[in-house]
Amino acid sequence: MPSMTKRHRANQEIAAKYEGGQSPEVAIKALKSFKGPKFDQSVEVCAHLGIDPRQADQQLRGSIAMPKGVGKSARVVCFCGEDKVEDAKAAGAIEAGGEDLVKKVGDGWMDFDVAVASPDMMRVVSKLGRVLGPKGLMPSPKAGTVSPDVVNAVKEYAAGKLEYRNDSGGNLQCIIGKMSFSEGDLLENLEYFLALVEKIRPAAAKGQYVKKIVVSGTMTPGIQIAE
């Protein structure tokens, strides 16, 4: 395995061949040609969008389930009634319950990645706003983590469904898989994300909507995709 310096230099030389916007197919092929570390890198796409994040009607938030998955599972907890506890656990929840689970989290237990809740549970889950809010874990209808069908929501998030949310600079970032994925699977996930970006374009956004889209691995240069 080449040293980090040699790998960096080699990757910069490869990246130089792909300056400017590339088709999604070429971008993924370029990404797969980079010299990588021993671990299986995540592959991420970042879209810089012409939105004003200060305006509520231009903020983008939701969830996405990649057609080929993202190569990782999530630890999901489910706030639900007693009648759904066993089904939620069978669907993949590491913990499920009502007031007892709210108390457990309120007492400091935070060993999970995603929290889902049924709408009727939000009156008690709201007590955790100060705990879950700052960590981005508060269940939300917009993100799909508040759902009447909590069992299915648990199943989807445990399988790798992701929440997305634009940052203060108007960027939308999302993992689309692992470097070990085939080019075809990464391409299918990338195109699915690109289609989503167009679908969620705010009506209030003015001017150029998609300004720049870049795909990269955890430790690779980025490859820009042609708009």
What this model shows, in words?
Helices cover 33% and strands 21% of the residues. It has helices at 4-16, 24-33, 82-90, 99-106, 122-125, 129-132, 150-158, 183-199, and strands spanning 42-49, 61-64, 76-79, 93-97, 114-117, 162-165, 171-178, 210-217, 223-225. Helix 2 (24-33) crosses helix 8 and helix 3 runs parallel beside helix 7 (150-158). The two termini are 35 Å apart.
Distinctive features:
227 residues, four-stranded antiparallel sheet, 8 helices, single chain, alpha/beta, 9 strands
How many runs of DSSP E, i.e. beta strands?
9
Give the strand order of the largest sheet, numbering strands 1, 2, ... along the chain. Answer: 7-1-8-9
Q: Portion of residues in helices?
A: 25-40%
Taken in chain order, the helices and strands follow as: HHEEEHEHEHHHEEHEE
For the termini, the CA-CA separation is: 35 Å
Going by helix content, strand content and strand pairing, the class is alpha/beta
User: How many helices does DSSP assign?
Assistant: 8
| Strand coverage percent | 15-25%
Major β-sheet profile: 4 strands, antiparallel
- Please compute the radius of gyration using only Cα atoms: 20 Å
Mean pLDDT rating: 92
